[in-house]
C-alpha cells in the first residue's frame, strides 16, 4: 500500500533499529538513562533552550506544556483547527482544568492579531485568567512566517501571556525555510517537537523550554503517566532521526509539490493547498465514496475523514508519487 494518510505511518529503518538495540539504557524515572540524558541535552542545545524532556507522544508533550503554564481555571488562546484544541481529546480541559479560548484560524494558519487581542480577557473575577497563547508550526503543512510569529508572541508577552508552540512538524518548517531550529523556537517559552512524524522514529516527542519549566513538566509528566523506564531505546531512535533524517524532509516537500502539480491537471480535482509535505484537495461530494474505494483497491490510502489530505513522507518515493497520480487519473477518466 502507498500510505498517504499521515507521516506517522513511517517505520523505523534498519539503521534506526540498530541504534535502538545498541543504546546504553538505565531507569529514566531515576534520571539514570544515559541515552535519554544525552538526547535531551543535544536537543536543548539545538533548540537554543535550557532543557528538554522526552515524551511518549506529542499529545502528552503538548498537554504537559499547557499544564506547566496554566493552573486550574486559567485559559489558553488557541486556533479552532489547532491540534492542541481539536485533536487531543479535550485533554487540556479534562486533565488540566484549563479552559480553551479557540479562535478561527485564517487561511494561512495564523491567528489574526486583532482576534488574539480581543480574546485576551481583563483581570476580572467574571473571567477565566488568560495565561497562554498557543500556535502551531507547521499547521496543515503551512509554515507560519517569521514576521507573524514575532508579532503574535510580542503581543502575547506585552499582555502578560506566556507562549507555547506545537512544533510537531517544526523540522519541516526549518528545512522548508532553511532556518535553524533555534531561530524557530526562540520566540516561544515552550515548544513541543515530534520525532514520530516525518522524521521516522516509531515513538517520541519532546518539550523544550527553560529549566524551571522543564522541572515542572517532569513532575506533570509523571502525573499523567509519561514517566518511562529504559526510555533510551526511544531516545536512540529520536537521536538517529535528528542525525540522519532531518535533511531528507526536503525530498518529501519536493514530492508533495510534484503530487499537487500532477493532481491539479486532473478534471474534477481542485488542489486547495500544498505546503511542505501536505497536499489538500477537494472533489465533488459524489466522488468521495467511490474514489476512496478505488484508491484502496489500487493500493493507495488517503485520509478523507476531515479533509482530503495526501501526506508525503520518507517511506514514499518518486515512483509512488507517479503511481498515485496515475491511479487518480484513471479514476477521473472513467467517472
Ligand atoms: C501528530 C501531532 C501532534 C502529536 O500527536 P501524537 O500522535 O500524540 O504524537 C501534535 N500536534 C500536531 C500538529 C500533530 O500533527
Automatic annotation (TrEMBL):
GO terms for molecular function: lyase activity. Keywords: Lyase, Pyridoxal phosphate. Residues 3-282 form the Aromatic amino acid beta-eliminating lyase/threonine aldolase domain. Pfam families: Beta_elim_lyase (PF01212). InterPro entries: ArAA_b-elim_lyase/Thr_aldolase, Low_specificity_L-TA-like, PyrdxlP-dep_Trfase, PyrdxlP-dep_Trfase_major, PyrdxlP-dep_Trfase_small. It is an enzyme of class 4 (lyase). NCBIfam families: GntG_guanitoxin, PRK10534.1. This is Low-specificity L-threonine aldolase. Its EC number is 4.1.2.48. It comes from Halomonas casei. Belongs to the threonine aldolase family. Its cofactor is pyridoxal 5'-phosphate. Homotetramer.
Amino acid at each position: 500500500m502507498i500510505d498517504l494518510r499521515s507521516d506517522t505511518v513511517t517505520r523505523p529503518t534498519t539503521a534506526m533499529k540498530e541504534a535502538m538495540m545498541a543504546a546504553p539504557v538505565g531507569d529514566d524515572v531515576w534520571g539514570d538513562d544515559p541515552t535519554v540524558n544525552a538526547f535531551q541535552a543535544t536537543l536543548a542545545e539545538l533548540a537554543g533552550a535550557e532543557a528538554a524532556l522526552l515524551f511518549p507522544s506529542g499529545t502528552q508533550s503538548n498537554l504537559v506544556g499547557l499544564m506547566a503554564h496554566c493552573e486550574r481555571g486559567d485559559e489558553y488562546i488557541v486556533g479552532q483547527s489547532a491540534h492542541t484544541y481539536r485533536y487531543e481529546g479535550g485533554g487540556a480541559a479534562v486533565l488540566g482544568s484549563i479552559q480553551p479560548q479557540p479562535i478561527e484560524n485564517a487561511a494561512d494558519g495564523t491567528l489574526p492579531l486583532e482576534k488574539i487581542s480581543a480574546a485576551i480577557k481583563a483581570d476580572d473575577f467574571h473571567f477565566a485568567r488568560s495565561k497562554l497563547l498557543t500556535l502551531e508550526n507547521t499547521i496543515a503543512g503551512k509554515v507560519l512566517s517569521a514576521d507573524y510569529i514575532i508579532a503574535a508572541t510580542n503581543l502575547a508577552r506585552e499582555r502578560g501571556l506566556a507562549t507555547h508552540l506545537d512544533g510537531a512538524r517544526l523540522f519541516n518548517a526549518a528545512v522548508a525555510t532553511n532556518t535553524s531550529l533555534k531561530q524557530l523556537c526562540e520566540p516561544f517559552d515552550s515548544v513541543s517537537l515530534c520525532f514520530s512524524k516525518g522524521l521516522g522514529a516509531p515513538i517520541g516527542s519532546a518539550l523544550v523550554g527553560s529549566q524551571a519549566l522543564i522541572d515542572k513538566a517532569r513532575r506533570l509528566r509523571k502525573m499523567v503517566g509519561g514517566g518511562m523506564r529504559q526510555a533510551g531505546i526511544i531516545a536512540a531512535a529520536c537521536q538517529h532521526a535528528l542525525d540522519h533524517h532531518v535533511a531528507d524532509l526536503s525530498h518529501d516537500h519536493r514530492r508533495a509539490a510534484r503530487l499537487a502539480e500532477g493532481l491539479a491537471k486532473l478534471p474534477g480535482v481542485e488542489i486547495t493547498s500544498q505546503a511542505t509535505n501536505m497536499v489538500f484537495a477537494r472533489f465533488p461530494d459524489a466522488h468521495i465514496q467511490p474514489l476512496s474505494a478505488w484508491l484502496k483497491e489500487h493500493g493507495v490510502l488517503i485520509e478523507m475523514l476531515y479533509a482530503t489530505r495526501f501526506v508525503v513522507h520518507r517511506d514514499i518515493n518518486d515512483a509512488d508519487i507517479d503511481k498515485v497520480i496515475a491511479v487518480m487519473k484513471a479514476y477521473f477518466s472513467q467517472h
